[in-house]
Amino acid sequence: MAKKDRTDRQAVIDSIRNKQKSADKRRGFAIVGVCVTIALLIVAAAAYQPIKDWYDLRTFDSQSLDEIGAAADDCREITTKKATGEQQHVEPGTPIAYEDAPPAFGEHYNVWDTIDRKLYKTTDRPDVGELVHNPEHGYTILWYDKTVADNDAMMDDLRGIASKFDDNANYRNKFKAVPWTSEDGEAFPGKQHVAMTHWSVNGEGATPAEKQVGVFQYCSAPSGEAPGGVHGEVPLHRLPRARRDLIRDRLT
User: Fold this and answer.
1) N vs C: which end of the chain shows fewer Cβ within 10 Å?
2) Which are the contacts of 200, defined by CB distance < 8 A and separation ≥ 6?
3) pLDDT digit string (tens) for 218-241?
4) For residue 186, what are the CA distances in angstroms to 32, 73, 81, 181?
5) Cα(first)–Cα(last) distance of the chain, in Å?
6) Strand 108-109 to strand 89-90: parallel, antiparallel, or no bridges (unpaired)?
């Protein structure tokens, strides 16, 4: 009788163990399933925006630059201001106070952004001090504020505009669209949400010290006509003279 009791108890113990193993296995499968699902969601989330951007850009393939976004009439007149700061370089991270929002010229970092990237978001944009160096090398910078950043249609227009400057071998495609935040400086004047800036010698044969100017244009929304207009004010020979040879020899 005692042997039978031991056998029965062992059977109960084995049954409990088997049930526990089955439960552990199911729990393990459930954990793996959840992890796989989370991983797939992460991959899908990472892939969604690039795929959406690519799909949205297809709508701009048949449009010329000046057909994208707001009309030039939605922009203020182009203005200029005497420029200073050529070759006034400081180390990255050095605090710099700029008078204009946004700046088109002035003291800047001793590094500048490469030509490859045309459009930035707040999370990955270079510092303002680095970006101000780019116009010294012939770039037009389109700055956009939070109103544009929060508007999907306007951001689509920005992506479309930026896509038209993808030929990096062409000096006229020295263009960048970057966010301007409250941490960078004051809001754009007159409730405008976009600003284009450029740095110009302002005349063939002029010495840098005499006639360099910052070029500004403010718009209520991204405009494909406006960057062309700003570029039209500053042909290649009007870049800061000390930089022309470097620009021709080294596209950066």
Assistant:
1) N
2) 80, 83, 212, 213, 214, 215, 233, 234, 238, 239
3) 999 999 887 655 454 444 434 443
4) 50, 24, 18, 8
5) 92
6) parallel
- Per the document, the length of the chain is 252
User: Average pLDDT of each block of 10 consecutive residues along the chain (252 residues)?
Assistant: 61 74 75 74 59 65 87 90 92 96 96 94 96 92 97 94 87 90 95 92 58 91 74 45 38 34
Tally of domains within the chain? 2
Which residues 6+ apart lie within 8 Å of 225 measured at CB? 65, 66, 69, 71, 72, 75
Distance of CA 173 to the CA centre of its chain: 16
Query: Does residue 108 lie in a domain region?
Result: yes
Q: Say how far apart CA 174 and CA 200 lie, in whole Å.
A: 14
Alpha-helix residue ranges (DSSP H) falling in 93-239: 128-131, 133-136, 146-149, 152-163, 208-211, 225-233
Task: Note whether 49 and 74 are same-domain residues.
Answer: no
- Indicate if 172 and 102 belong to the same structural domain: yes
Closest CA to 174 of 247, 82, 67: 247
How is residue 121 written in tokens?
């978001």
Give the separation between CA 160 and CA 64, rounded to whole angstroms: 10
The first and second tokens of residue 187, run together, are: 């809001």
| 76 lies in some domain | yes
